[in-house]
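Think of the structure tokens as a kind of shorthand, similar to the way a musician reads notation: each symbol stands for something richer, in this case the local conformation of the backbone. In the example below we present two proteins back to back. Begin with the first one, reading the sequence and then the tokens, and try to describe in your own words what changes along the chain.
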Amino acid sequence: MAPPSDWYGAHVEEVSARFESLSPDDVHGWLVDLLPPAPGALALDVGAGTGRDAAWLAGKGLDVVAVEPSGPMLETARLLHPTPDVRWVSDSLPALAKVCRLGLAFDLILLSGVWMFVAPADRARAFRKLIGLLKPGGRLALSLRIGPPDRERGMHPVDVAEIETLARSHGALVERIAHNPDLMGRPGLSWSNLVLRLPDDGTGALPLLRQVILNDSKSSTYKLALLRTLCRIADSAAGLGREDADGQVEVPFGLVGLYWLRLFKPLVAADLPQLPNNRGQQGLGFVGPGYRALADVSPLDLRLGAVFAGARAKALHDALAEACRTIEIMPAHYMTFTDGGAIFPVARARRVPPPAQIVVDGPYLRAFGLLRVPGHLWRAMQRLAVWIEPALSAEWKRLMIDYAERQDRRLAPEIIDRAMLWSEPAREVGLARSQAGRLLGTGALYCVWSGRSLAADTLDIDHCFPWSAWPCDDLWNLMPAHREVNQRQKRDRLPAAGLLRAAQDRIQAWWESGYLKTGEALAARFQIEARASLPVLGTDAGAAAATLDDVFDALALQQVRLRADQGLALWDTPG
């Protein structure tokens, strides 16, 4: 999207002065009446430059994600427009890799003077990415620079007809075309402005999921288990997914096996039938020597960042192989499109000997191979997990009750509900509470929200993002808070962007003292969890550890996702 030599970064002062001299109300007057209603609407500004337009959109009440590939320009934008309602991301077309990993859907995407930087050979892919990031009913607004391209700055010719063709091929409607003179009076230049609208997502993701959940024949709970496994991964570990050139998302097959085991262990232990004739472990294809050797391991310990050694490492490795084998030959094989093609094709890796010690992270889990998820299904599960997962769980419960009745058994609802839980917040905050307790004696523990000093009788461990809306027990999401602030003021509300930014120094100080300076194992777990659940951080092999600023920026983007997808009530007045 930007010239390889970063012309704009080299001329940042000159460019900034020119851009900031123009009023965004004048530049975007053709668009104002089509802006999505605020508050709560979400906008993406691609090629944000100096941040002028991103700040303008934020001033209209929108939450904004601003993308800029030039490092110097991005830093300038942060300095010129330090509003908490704009979240800055270093990314570029045609891939928009970081933005796509966020799992966000936008009401408005703005490309102002950007399309000419996308090489013609990359435009079909770039357009598909942009359309995929829109909500149904969302709008894509483009300003095209009509005139001789400036080759020094990496520009290419653009025209309205190309955009109209791309829109038709992706089911988008051209809602408006406006032609305007160049506001700087440059000879030979003018601007063509287009608004495209996506009337329907057109992907068929939800009907396909509904078909599998409610209508497909099922001789076991395995299809539902695979869907719930993938839904949990898309919602809580999307950072480990990688989109391929065909738009499919490659998920480490070992991660699928890990989450599969975590879901099934409490169900099997509670003697809840997963097949018409199943009792306990009997008849379940994934129950082999490895699974049985994990009998004393809590399902909650089957998590990213966990460390297994010796006999337990071998047991986990074998159990994952058993689970992956069952998934491949059963639900992944029998879940097909109408033409018979696999919805979730699997590429298994050659068998790898069990290591003496296992760190449950991306590289280890990818050693089992890959499972591919169609991009439209992945995005639906990311954005709508809060609604899809309850439907999966309800149908899974119905099947287990039906199987039990065939066995002349009646299942207690409270036992089913207990076994279906993904996480237990009281147990999962134990490590964070222990770390906070260690700091109490030093007098250096403060409420991240209010800055009040904490004591043993006032300490709460707070999920930064409400557990009721997003069951994430990662270390970065667990923070010390004053009991009164947590239980009487914040409760289950989502911290507002301004409040998060005001608390940034205290949050990062807690991460540093609570986790990163207490030993390599805890620091490594912090990094593994953050990279998995905050997907903008990425999981590239060999990448440097994410800085605390990186993690905080990713946290701020997750706040945008939760607000946009679930409409959570905001909390912005700490006591």
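Once you have a description of the first chain, move to the second and do the same.
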Amino acid sequence: MLRKLKLSLLGLTVSVLAFAQSAPQGISVRTNLLWDGAAEPNLGLEFPIGKRLSLGLDAGLKSWPRWLFWDTDNINNPRHWRNFAIVPEVRFYPGRVYQGLFLGADLVYTYFNVGKVSFPLGLYPETRDKRLQGDFVGLGLFGGYSWWLGDHWRLELEAGVAAGYAGYGSYRCEHCGDKLADESKPALVPKLGVNVAWNPVKRPRECDVPIPLREVPEEMPMPDPVEDPGPFRPQLAPVEPHRGAVDSVKTPFLLHIGDFQPYTPDQVLRKKRGMIKVYYPQGSSALRTSFEESGRLRDNQPALDSIVNITRMILSDDISKVEKIQIVGFSSIDGGEPANERLALARARALQEYVQKRTQAPLQAFVVENGQEGWAEFKDMLEDLLRETRRGVATGFTTGELETAVGIAGAPTLDAAHNRRKELELKKHSALWGKIKEKVLGDQRNSGYVRVYVSWVPDKAADEINGAIGRINAGQVEEGRRALSAMDDARARDVLKELDARRGAYEEAVSLYRAYEGALARRREAAAARQEALDWNAMAGAHNAAVLECENGKKD
């Protein structure tokens, strides 16, 4: 039975807390000074559910054995008193909630652990020489009076009694000992309270006079935002200098002579910008326009035509000039180092002869370099295949095979004996070597990579135009404009047209921004007036509702 009463009390407590969340404006927080004086910290909540009714919940906890929280159980001080209580309640105020006389009913649950304590008026005599530990659940009636001490503070006096059922165990010793018996019986618990309460909402005043509402202006639409154009900064793009035939050629292997770099064995030309490749049959330096290898057609004609035609165009131009034609020859790593070195150089010279014969380029323009077996190129191809294999791309290799091959290839070197040992080490892995020959070495049998480096006559007019553009972009607009106007060049005239167009667009943007700023200022003024009226009406509405409630309360 006691267990059912405790569960019912728990459900009621949860309901009270749920109601409390729905009425935060009228909540009151209190503490019972008598409980505090008995070394039992406590806290109470109360909130109205009508003009004269309120719900409340009080809870207290005394977790230390006697008066002070640092007290501990010991033989020298035999008193022992621990307690926990939770009390949901309902109050009725005949006049108004929180004010004057009130009557109430509550449900009381307390857990106690008491020994060697004498209560006044002869209450609970069993605790004088025994320790009792258990629960009490009961229903109580009480009454009291509430005074407002100020706008937020109140003082309450209350008294009552709760009748219920106690279930507990009795022990011989206040700190220890065997249990003497389990008992359950009816019990009475008195209720006395001197409460100090705090209300977040001010106490009700005498009924005031209603406040008239204001007319709310219509809300003005927000103008479309316009970005502040800031100072006039046209930021014109520089003009490209005239470079003769170079301007009409769109190919990556045509570079300025200032970018020229001699070949070194550690370079990986296959990934450098602008290199063009020509292939050779295995073991041959004979240059063919096309041939078939392992079922794959190698078509050199487009590359050869591109090299010859572009070189001819530059050679016939008065402004641009062919400075260097760089050719790097390679062989694969398969075979003896001396033979491969000769083969790589022969391939580069075969391509040189082909280009020179068809373009009549001067011999001194050619830079023929021997890339030999190209171990750097070989290792780079293996690393690319390894990355693709790790991403799940089908390359024909396993990850382990490629990791082995990359490890053997190592860093590039010109030491022929060392390179020979690496080749023999690869050939020990026969299956891996077969795949390398089929899928990798074919791309190494080429004349290598060809680049054409050129120069051109400086375009002084472009330098002057770009100088004027630089002054305009730096903010010296009129100074740059005067310089452009003095030039007899179509590009300068085009820049002036662009400058005028951007100035017109800027002036239009400034006009739009000023109109936007004016509309925005008017919108802000209207919004401020509207918000002021809304705030006034909200305040007046709350005030008038309080007045009406006050009047209704007075009538009741």
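Compare your description with these statements about the second chain. The first strand starts at residue 28 and ends at 32.
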